[in-house]
Design goal:
The structure is a single chain. The protein contains no helices and 23 strands. The mean pLDDT is 98. The chain has a single domain (5-308), classed as Glycosyl hydrolase domain, family 43 (Tachylectin-2, Chain A). It is an all-beta fold. The protein is globular, with a radius of gyration of 18 Å. The chain binds beta-L-arabinofuranose. Beta-L-arabinofuranose is lined by residues 14-15, 30, 46, 84-85, 135-136, 153, 223-224, 272, 274. Its EC number is 3.2.1.37.
Length: 324
Protein backbone atom coordinates (compact mmCIF):
# COMPACT_ATOMS: atom_id res chain seq x y z
CA UNK A 1 0.00 0.00 0.00
CA UNK A 2 1.66 3.24 -1.10
CA UNK A 3 -0.34 5.94 0.69
CA UNK A 4 -2.70 5.84 3.67
CA UNK A 5 -6.32 5.69 2.47
CA UNK A 6 -9.39 7.55 3.86
CA UNK A 7 -12.15 4.95 4.22
CA UNK A 8 -15.46 6.81 4.76
CA UNK A 9 -15.19 10.16 2.97
CA UNK A 10 -18.92 10.93 3.37
CA UNK A 11 -19.09 10.90 7.19
CA UNK A 12 -17.00 11.44 10.33
CA UNK A 13 -15.83 8.25 12.04
CA UNK A 14 -13.06 7.68 14.61
CA UNK A 15 -11.42 5.12 16.97
CA UNK A 16 -11.54 2.20 14.49
CA UNK A 17 -11.46 -1.32 15.95
CA UNK A 18 -10.72 -3.60 12.97
CA UNK A 19 -11.25 -7.38 13.03
CA UNK A 20 -11.37 -10.21 10.51
CA UNK A 21 -14.53 -12.31 10.80
CA UNK A 22 -15.49 -14.92 8.14
CA UNK A 23 -12.66 -13.74 5.80
CA UNK A 24 -13.97 -10.16 5.71
CA UNK A 25 -12.53 -7.14 7.44
CA UNK A 26 -14.97 -5.37 9.77
CA UNK A 27 -14.48 -1.90 11.27
CA UNK A 28 -16.23 -0.78 14.46
CA UNK A 29 -15.68 2.99 14.78
CA UNK A 30 -17.08 5.81 16.91
CA UNK A 31 -19.48 8.06 14.95
CA UNK A 32 -18.57 11.75 15.26
CA UNK A 33 -21.07 14.50 14.54
CA UNK A 34 -21.46 18.25 15.02
CA UNK A 35 -23.40 18.46 18.29
CA UNK A 36 -22.48 22.10 18.93
CA UNK A 37 -20.97 21.34 22.37
CA UNK A 38 -17.87 23.51 22.94
CA UNK A 39 -14.46 21.82 23.13
CA UNK A 40 -13.06 21.15 26.65
CA UNK A 41 -10.53 18.86 28.44
CA UNK A 42 -13.41 16.69 29.66
CA UNK A 43 -14.19 15.68 26.06
CA UNK A 44 -17.82 16.87 26.22
CA UNK A 45 -17.63 17.78 22.52
CA UNK A 46 -17.30 14.05 21.69
CA UNK A 47 -21.05 13.64 22.12
CA UNK A 48 -21.60 10.55 19.99
CA UNK A 49 -24.98 8.86 19.99
CA UNK A 50 -24.78 5.83 17.69
CA UNK A 51 -22.48 3.32 15.99
CA UNK A 52 -22.20 2.14 12.39
CA UNK A 53 -20.33 -0.98 11.19
CA UNK A 54 -18.26 -1.09 7.99
CA UNK A 55 -16.83 -4.04 6.08
CA UNK A 56 -14.39 -4.63 3.23
CA UNK A 57 -13.20 -7.58 1.15
CA UNK A 58 -9.98 -5.81 0.26
CA UNK A 59 -8.27 -3.10 2.31
CA UNK A 60 -6.22 -1.44 -0.40
CA UNK A 61 -8.76 -0.86 -3.17
CA UNK A 62 -12.03 -2.55 -2.26
CA UNK A 63 -15.32 -0.82 -1.61
CA UNK A 64 -16.25 -0.03 1.98
CA UNK A 65 -19.78 -1.23 2.84
CA UNK A 66 -21.71 0.76 5.46
CA UNK A 67 -24.03 -1.60 7.37
CA UNK A 68 -25.87 1.37 8.86
CA UNK A 69 -26.73 2.17 12.48
CA UNK A 70 -26.23 -0.89 14.71
CA UNK A 71 -26.71 0.56 18.23
CA UNK A 72 -28.04 3.91 19.54
CA UNK A 73 -28.02 5.53 22.98
CA UNK A 74 -31.82 5.64 22.99
CA UNK A 75 -31.88 1.80 22.82
CA UNK A 76 -29.62 1.41 25.89
CA UNK A 77 -31.70 1.29 29.11
CA UNK A 78 -29.00 2.80 31.38
CA UNK A 79 -27.79 5.47 28.92
CA UNK A 80 -26.72 8.95 29.83
CA UNK A 81 -24.49 10.29 27.06
CA UNK A 82 -21.36 9.78 24.91
CA UNK A 83 -20.85 6.48 23.09
CA UNK A 84 -17.07 6.39 22.80
CA UNK A 85 -14.62 3.85 21.41
CA UNK A 86 -16.09 0.30 21.16
CA UNK A 87 -14.78 -3.16 20.30
CA UNK A 88 -16.32 -6.46 19.15
CA UNK A 89 -15.40 -10.11 19.83
CA UNK A 90 -16.75 -13.44 18.60
CA UNK A 91 -17.36 -16.34 20.99
CA UNK A 92 -19.69 -19.37 21.07
CA UNK A 93 -21.51 -18.35 17.85
CA UNK A 94 -22.29 -14.76 18.94
CA UNK A 95 -20.74 -11.32 18.41
CA UNK A 96 -20.32 -9.18 21.54
CA UNK A 97 -19.95 -5.41 21.27
CA UNK A 98 -18.34 -3.65 24.27
CA UNK A 99 -19.01 0.08 24.51
CA UNK A 100 -18.21 2.85 27.01
CA UNK A 101 -21.08 5.16 27.84
CA UNK A 102 -21.78 7.63 30.63
CA UNK A 103 -24.67 6.52 32.83
CA UNK A 104 -27.35 8.87 34.14
CA UNK A 105 -24.91 10.10 36.85
CA UNK A 106 -22.35 11.02 34.15
CA UNK A 107 -20.03 8.15 35.13
CA UNK A 108 -18.45 6.07 32.37
CA UNK A 109 -19.38 2.36 32.51
CA UNK A 110 -18.78 -0.37 29.95
CA UNK A 111 -21.79 -2.08 28.40
CA UNK A 112 -22.28 -5.18 26.24
CA UNK A 113 -24.60 -5.64 23.25
CA UNK A 114 -25.08 -8.92 21.35
CA UNK A 115 -25.66 -9.94 17.74
CA UNK A 116 -25.75 -13.14 15.70
CA UNK A 117 -23.86 -11.37 12.91
CA UNK A 118 -20.66 -9.31 12.78
CA UNK A 119 -22.49 -6.47 11.02
CA UNK A 120 -25.10 -6.21 13.77
CA UNK A 121 -27.53 -4.83 14.79
CA UNK A 122 -26.45 -5.30 18.43
CA UNK A 123 -28.97 -5.68 21.26
CA UNK A 124 -27.79 -4.10 24.53
CA UNK A 125 -27.97 -5.75 27.97
CA UNK A 126 -30.16 -4.09 30.60
CA UNK A 127 -27.20 -2.95 32.75
CA UNK A 128 -23.51 -2.17 32.32
CA UNK A 129 -20.88 -4.76 33.32
CA UNK A 130 -20.70 -4.95 37.15
CA UNK A 131 -17.56 -3.28 38.46
CA UNK A 132 -16.77 -1.61 35.11
CA UNK A 133 -15.52 1.97 34.92
CA UNK A 134 -13.60 4.34 32.60
CA UNK A 135 -13.58 3.71 28.83
CA UNK A 136 -11.90 2.47 25.61
CA UNK A 137 -12.48 -1.30 25.98
CA UNK A 138 -10.43 -3.62 23.75
CA UNK A 139 -11.07 -7.37 23.74
CA UNK A 140 -8.29 -9.89 23.22
CA UNK A 141 -9.21 -13.53 22.45
CA UNK A 142 -6.11 -15.33 23.62
CA UNK A 143 -4.74 -18.60 22.30
CA UNK A 144 -5.46 -20.13 25.73
CA UNK A 145 -9.20 -19.81 24.88
CA UNK A 146 -9.76 -17.01 27.44
CA UNK A 147 -10.94 -13.49 26.51
CA UNK A 148 -9.36 -10.44 28.14
CA UNK A 149 -10.54 -6.83 28.24
CA UNK A 150 -8.09 -3.90 28.32
CA UNK A 151 -9.58 -0.53 29.24
CA UNK A 152 -9.02 2.90 30.76
CA UNK A 153 -8.36 6.49 29.83
CA UNK A 154 -7.21 9.66 31.59
CA UNK A 155 -8.89 13.10 31.87
CA UNK A 156 -12.37 12.79 30.24
CA UNK A 157 -11.92 8.99 30.43
CA UNK A 158 -12.19 9.23 34.27
CA UNK A 159 -9.47 6.67 35.17
CA UNK A 160 -7.99 9.14 37.70
CA UNK A 161 -11.21 8.82 39.73
CA UNK A 162 -10.34 5.22 40.76
CA UNK A 163 -7.70 3.28 42.71
CA UNK A 164 -7.74 -0.49 43.21
CA UNK A 165 -11.05 -0.61 41.29
CA UNK A 166 -12.78 1.63 43.86
CA UNK A 167 -14.09 5.14 43.26
CA UNK A 168 -12.11 7.89 45.05
CA UNK A 169 -13.71 10.85 46.81
CA UNK A 170 -11.65 13.14 44.55
CA UNK A 171 -9.83 12.43 41.30
CA UNK A 172 -6.06 12.04 41.75
CA UNK A 173 -3.65 12.20 38.81
CA UNK A 174 -0.05 11.23 39.65
CA UNK A 175 2.62 13.74 38.62
CA UNK A 176 6.34 13.95 37.82
CA UNK A 177 8.34 10.94 39.06
CA UNK A 178 5.32 9.17 40.54
CA UNK A 179 4.35 6.01 38.61
CA UNK A 180 1.85 6.74 35.83
CA UNK A 181 -1.66 5.30 36.06
CA UNK A 182 -1.77 1.90 34.36
CA UNK A 183 -4.31 0.66 31.82
CA UNK A 184 -6.44 -2.19 33.20
CA UNK A 185 -6.72 -5.81 32.12
CA UNK A 186 -9.42 -8.25 33.18
CA UNK A 187 -10.45 -11.76 32.10
CA UNK A 188 -14.06 -12.07 30.94
CA UNK A 189 -16.52 -14.68 32.15
CA UNK A 190 -17.31 -17.46 29.67
CA UNK A 191 -20.71 -15.93 28.85
CA UNK A 192 -18.84 -12.68 27.96
CA UNK A 193 -21.30 -10.59 30.01
CA UNK A 194 -19.31 -9.95 33.21
CA UNK A 195 -15.76 -9.77 34.54
CA UNK A 196 -14.42 -13.13 35.78
CA UNK A 197 -12.07 -11.41 38.26
CA UNK A 198 -11.03 -7.99 39.59
CA UNK A 199 -9.33 -5.82 36.96
CA UNK A 200 -5.52 -5.68 37.34
CA UNK A 201 -2.95 -3.03 36.46
CA UNK A 202 -1.21 -3.63 33.11
CA UNK A 203 2.33 -2.56 33.90
CA UNK A 204 4.33 -0.73 31.22
CA UNK A 205 8.04 -0.66 32.13
CA UNK A 206 11.01 1.26 30.77
CA UNK A 207 14.22 -0.38 29.54
CA UNK A 208 15.45 -0.65 33.17
CA UNK A 209 12.33 -2.50 34.33
CA UNK A 210 10.84 0.55 36.11
CA UNK A 211 7.19 1.59 35.72
CA UNK A 212 6.86 4.56 33.35
CA UNK A 213 6.41 7.75 35.35
CA UNK A 214 3.50 10.19 35.12
CA UNK A 215 5.83 12.95 33.92
CA UNK A 216 7.06 10.80 31.03
CA UNK A 217 4.19 12.04 28.90
CA UNK A 218 5.71 10.93 25.59
CA UNK A 219 5.65 7.29 26.73
CA UNK A 220 3.07 6.82 29.48
CA UNK A 221 -0.41 5.38 28.82
CA UNK A 222 -3.29 7.82 28.28
CA UNK A 223 -6.08 5.90 26.40
CA UNK A 224 -6.89 3.76 23.30
CA UNK A 225 -5.71 0.27 24.37
CA UNK A 226 -5.13 -2.28 21.63
CA UNK A 227 -3.58 -5.75 21.69
CA UNK A 228 -2.13 -7.89 18.91
CA UNK A 229 0.24 -10.83 18.65
CA UNK A 230 3.20 -11.08 16.27
CA UNK A 231 5.97 -13.61 16.06
CA UNK A 232 5.62 -15.02 19.59
CA UNK A 233 5.14 -11.64 21.35
CA UNK A 234 2.14 -9.74 22.68
CA UNK A 235 2.05 -6.11 21.50
CA UNK A 236 0.10 -3.66 23.65
CA UNK A 237 -0.38 -0.31 21.89
CA UNK A 238 -1.98 2.91 23.13
CA UNK A 239 -2.24 6.67 22.79
CA UNK A 240 -0.16 9.07 24.90
CA UNK A 241 -3.04 11.60 24.75
CA UNK A 242 -1.66 15.10 25.33
CA UNK A 243 1.57 14.26 23.43
CA UNK A 244 -0.47 12.73 20.57
CA UNK A 245 1.57 9.57 19.88
CA UNK A 246 0.56 5.97 19.30
CA UNK A 247 3.18 3.86 21.12
CA UNK A 248 3.69 0.18 21.86
CA UNK A 249 5.14 -2.13 24.46
CA UNK A 250 5.77 -5.88 24.20
CA UNK A 251 5.28 -8.75 26.65
CA UNK A 252 5.05 -12.51 26.96
CA UNK A 253 1.47 -12.99 28.12
CA UNK A 254 -1.86 -11.08 28.16
CA UNK A 255 -1.36 -9.75 31.72
CA UNK A 256 2.15 -8.41 31.13
CA UNK A 257 4.34 -6.82 32.33
CA UNK A 258 5.06 -5.02 29.06
CA UNK A 259 8.23 -3.18 28.09
CA UNK A 260 8.04 0.08 26.16
CA UNK A 261 9.39 -0.33 22.61
CA UNK A 262 8.64 2.85 20.62
CA UNK A 263 6.31 4.99 18.53
CA UNK A 264 3.98 3.53 15.88
CA UNK A 265 2.30 6.74 14.65
CA UNK A 266 3.58 10.32 15.08
CA UNK A 267 0.97 13.08 15.70
CA UNK A 268 -1.92 13.48 13.30
CA UNK A 269 -3.95 16.63 12.58
CA UNK A 270 -6.43 16.78 15.48
CA UNK A 271 -6.07 16.25 19.26
CA UNK A 272 -6.91 12.57 19.74
CA UNK A 273 -5.13 9.70 18.08
CA UNK A 274 -6.53 6.17 18.20
CA UNK A 275 -5.90 3.02 16.25
CA UNK A 276 -6.15 -0.74 15.78
CA UNK A 277 -3.70 -3.18 14.24
CA UNK A 278 -4.78 -6.24 12.28
CA UNK A 279 -3.39 -8.78 9.79
CA UNK A 280 -5.50 -9.35 6.68
CA UNK A 281 -4.59 -11.34 3.57
CA UNK A 282 -0.92 -11.57 4.58
CA UNK A 283 -0.33 -7.85 5.36
CA UNK A 284 -0.51 -5.84 8.56
CA UNK A 285 -2.52 -2.61 8.75
CA UNK A 286 -2.82 0.34 11.11
CA UNK A 287 -6.38 1.69 11.18
CA UNK A 288 -6.51 5.19 12.68
CA UNK A 289 -8.10 8.63 12.27
CA UNK A 290 -7.19 12.26 11.70
CA UNK A 291 -8.95 15.61 11.25
CA UNK A 292 -7.60 16.63 7.84
CA UNK A 293 -10.97 16.40 6.01
CA UNK A 294 -12.73 18.53 8.68
CA UNK A 295 -9.87 21.07 8.47
CA UNK A 296 -8.70 20.41 12.02
CA UNK A 297 -12.02 20.27 13.90
CA UNK A 298 -10.87 17.92 16.66
CA UNK A 299 -14.33 16.38 17.22
CA UNK A 300 -14.90 15.56 13.50
CA UNK A 301 -12.48 12.78 12.68
CA UNK A 302 -12.03 10.64 9.55
CA UNK A 303 -11.07 6.98 9.27
CA UNK A 304 -7.80 6.00 7.61
CA UNK A 305 -5.72 2.92 6.99
CA UNK A 306 -1.97 2.57 6.36
CA UNK A 307 0.21 -0.51 5.93
CA UNK A 308 2.27 -1.43 9.00
CA UNK A 309 5.72 -3.01 8.66
CA UNK A 310 8.01 -4.76 11.13
CA UNK A 311 11.79 -4.86 11.25
CA UNK A 312 13.48 -8.29 11.51
CA UNK A 313 13.86 -7.82 15.32
CA UNK A 314 10.07 -7.43 15.70
CA UNK A 315 10.17 -3.64 16.17
CA UNK A 316 7.53 -1.65 14.26
CA UNK A 317 8.51 0.88 11.58
CA UNK A 318 6.99 4.22 12.72
CA UNK A 319 4.38 5.80 10.43
CA UNK A 320 4.38 9.56 9.89
CA UNK A 321 1.16 11.27 11.00
CA UNK A 322 -0.42 14.18 9.12
CA UNK A 323 0.67 16.82 11.68
CA UNK A 324 4.32 16.48 10.58
O1 LIG B 1 -13.86 9.14 20.60
C1 LIG B 1 -13.88 9.57 21.93
C2 LIG B 1 -12.56 9.34 22.56
O2 LIG B 1 -11.56 10.06 21.86
C3 LIG B 1 -12.07 7.92 22.54
O3 LIG B 1 -12.74 7.05 23.40
C4 LIG B 1 -10.65 8.18 22.85
O4 LIG B 1 -9.79 7.09 22.69
C5 LIG B 1 -10.35 9.31 21.89
O5 LIG B 1 -10.06 8.85 20.59
Amino acid sequence: MKEPRYLVPGDYMADPAAHVFNDKLYIYPSHDWESGIPENDNGDHFNMKDYHVFSMDDVEQGEVTDHGVVLRTEDIPWAGRQLWDSDVAFRNGKYYMYFPLKDQNDIFRIGVAISDRPEGPFIPQENPIKGSYSMDPCIWPDKDGEYYMYFGGLWGGQLQRYRNNKALECALLPEGDEPALCPKVVRLREDMLEFAEEPRDLMILDEKGKLLSAGDTKRRFFEASWMHYYNGKYYFSYSTGDTHLICYATGDNPYGPFTYRGVILTPVVGWTTHHSIVEFKGKWYLFHHDCVPSKGKTWLRSLKVAELKYNPDGSIQPIKGTAE
